[in-house]
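Bug #77: duplicate submission created two jobs. Keeping one. Sequence:
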Amino acid sequence: MTSSAPSASPSVLDLAPVVPVVVLQDAADAVPLARALVAGGLPAIEVTLRTPAALDAIRAIAAEVPDAVVGAGTVISVSHVTETVAAGARFLVSPGWTDTLLDAMKASGVPFLPGVSTTSEVVALLERGVTEMKFFPAEAAGGTAYLKALSAPLPQARFCPTGGISLASATSYLALPNVGCIGGSWMVPGDAVAAKDWARVERLAREASALRD
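Kept job's structure:
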């Protein structure tokens, strides 16, 4: 990802074919869930800031699951940036961006994926030196056809499409030259998390991690 972090840092887009998008109601589930995802071959984990448990979940994963690369999703404010990085987030993902938010993410010292859904937003980020971004909401914003159309005029832009992607549609996204990875939540179904069925999560993660094998 583009950021002020050292260029030697690996891009989150290259860690695994899928970044699990995790919504946690209980921070106590964070560590066993992260361990299951890592065991299944998905080390990059996006914990969304959609619940009160999110910051504690990020903090717990960062402290107790060293093989996980935990990030914060649904980052929409400067305070989100500072709070999540302080909690141990190693990358940031936003559904969209403003100049203020982009400046804060650039200053954070960790990689980031600002969200885009239009060609103009992509061009504006490229002007600012950002070449890696989130395409959101992927299915609603045009899906694979839209991303394929962007690849010829804007080949320097790389994407993590997220939003409405399933196991069935994942391979069509990953086949595109401008897609580094995809974001999805099908490997962390709510009923499995509620039942603390970490073996099922690990199986689903392993299935997802094999999409590029």
